[in-house]
Queue: 4 jobs
Job 1
Amino acid sequence: MPDPFRNPDAAAIRALLQAVRTIAVVGLSPNPHRPSHGVARALQQFGYKVIPVRPAVDEVLGERAYPALSDVAEPFDLVDVFRSPEHVAPLVDECLRLGVKAIWLQDGVVDEAAA
């Protein structure tokens, strides 16, 4: 079993990114100066469809935003999380309920119990 606290090797990351087409980005900020915005914009430039998941906004980067993963009205392959560690466990639980196969946490975001 892979170590939940170590990133996959480059080949595994490459394979994952080649297999996905649509990425739900939890915590995607409408502020272009925030890291989540820059990463999501880059993902779009690489050809991925990005689905913003953030309450209180209607749209980010030209895409309809949803308040929660369970509200997203279209299929997605990967969840990219831009939230602090205390919000990870409920997101992991939601991903498991929804059958999401891959979750991408940003560097430094660790939740040992959720792993």
Job 2
Amino acid sequence: MELKEKIIEEIKKIYDPEIPVNIYDLGLIYDIKVEDKNTAKIKMTLTSPNCPVAESLPKEVKDGIMQVEGIENVDLKLVWDPPWNQTMMTEAAKLELNL
């Protein structure tokens, strides 16, 4: 299994506190890259800039990715462009939320 797949597995264990769907299926993770074989570069957003977990969620993602064997650094950027909306959710997430 590739590092990127292992990272996605870890991210799928993290849930948005307000929506009962993991943040990967919610579409909050915009980009995952592995550079220099041990650095994970992540671009993520939150459902809104005023999200109550704006501080804790990125840290949780970072901590989760650090659990992946072979990853030594996590470079996580919180981005607001493009702004998140429901169309970014996977079909599974939409089904789970009856959308």
Job 3
Amino acid sequence: MLAKLKSEIELVSRHLEVIRAVVEYQPIGIMKLSDILDLPYHRVRYSLRILEQEGYIRASPAGAVATPLAADLLDGLEGQVDGLIDLLQTIKQENSRNL
């Protein structure tokens, strides 16, 4: 059960790595992103597709560019991650009490 959660967190981490690179280097193509991030082409392509579906980036003739939603996501990321950490700590504390 938790292995799947870990896998999802790692995937989201990669998507965030890609979106940060798009914001920094836009417009940017898949091959350049792959080189910059040292990730396989197919993984970058998948992350870009997901980010585009969610509205965080859009395709342009020169490559991927970030949308205003990308800035909103990155600006609020720390608070959202803190909320997830709090939830996990609560789960951990409840488990410790039940042992």
Job 4
Amino acid sequence: MILGNRSTGWNTGLTHGINAVWFNLFFSASGFFCLCLCMGEMSSALPFSGGVFGFVRAALGPFWGFLVATCEFVYCITAIALKAQRVFGSTSSNVLDAGGIVLIFGVCLLLNLIGGKPVFALTSVMGLLITSLLFIYLFGTLGNVGSDSIGFSHNTLPDVDFTWVHIMSSRSAVGGLFNGMQFFPLLSPYLKEPREQLPRVMLISCSTFLVTTVFIILAAVSRDNGGKKLSSTSTPLLNGFGQIFDMDSTQAQYLDLPFQFSSVFCLFYCAGRQLLAITKSGLLPSFLEKTIPGSDTPYYCYTFTAIVGVGLNLFVLYYPEHLAEVKAVSSTSSVLIFIFCLIAFMIFRRKFSSMARSFVNPLGDFSAIYGILTFCYAIIALVFYTDVNPLFLVAIGGCLLFSTIFFWTYLVKNQKFSDEEKKIMFKAYLINANRNMRKNRLKNNKIGPCTNSGADNPSNSKCKISFCVECL
């Protein structure tokens, strides 16, 4: 899903100058790297298949977890709307485009209904395909990269000063490159050792995305196509493939399809799995929890995702003037998810400090605070330095307000912990209880779990509980 962002839109920030792009790229990437460090430590202790929703719910409580779940679903659906518009291209007929939208969601629904390991294998194939195409692009274009071209020696773009306005204005174009990191914990059911594997794959992937993005920017600003450099186009990879293989734009568009379809498919999968996770926690009607026997596929969740996705895509299709607001809603939702996640990490480290971890964030609270600052900066840039309609703030606020009312009027009495959460949270409770009892015993100069006299007599009921907890 993240690699799909390499193909469209990101390079509009180049109109504000290459220095502003470099600054935002590395500032944004460092924030996401801190996010990966925090998520890696939480995943190594509590590998929830619900991802960020599970972390926030465990650390901050059910209400905040439900707000995060709302933001995650809004992000998935709005991001799908942005991606699906590019899969089928733009025709002269809205009817054909609408048919393409329905077809895309129908294919995604059917593929996800297969469920289980086949879906995981399919996403792996997609990942290998788009990664291969990405490296073909890089090796096909980097031969023309030089110090002169990096400095815009062709003067295709205006010479822009490195000012605060240009820095903030280019942030929204670059910042979304790493969106999708929050969905890595969804892989935990498919991994043999999620506690060890998730932190590793998050950090490796984040580093890979940064390196490839740097190479793409270098290639984009140095390629020349009839006097037009890729930095002035909205689809740098598409134009790059056209140059490499001597294709026209229509032919090259077919090479862009795997990027976009893989993004739609994976976002569709993530939206369905998130709905299942919050349903199992009693935060949505229980019928959504029903799965296909043998494949653990939540067919109602995926069907609901398909219906909402088609509806929003048709809205964007017939009212394209609101596409910028949909993009703004998507970006803001993702940023709110990240901020909640980083806050949850700081609480998590104190609340579950005794839980065994295979990975410990070496930067601790500093990484969380730094990450929060980078994402707050993203919201400021989006709200005050873009031309999007302020209605997107009303949309975000409306979603959160509706979720709040729904939670406190209905869900607060119906929420529960899923079987996965019960297992992990009960273990965390025992470990923390064990730690606190040990501290109390050391403070009172007690030695061992039980002795033969006084308050430490095994026949004492309180002592029996202490003994059992320590043994467990």
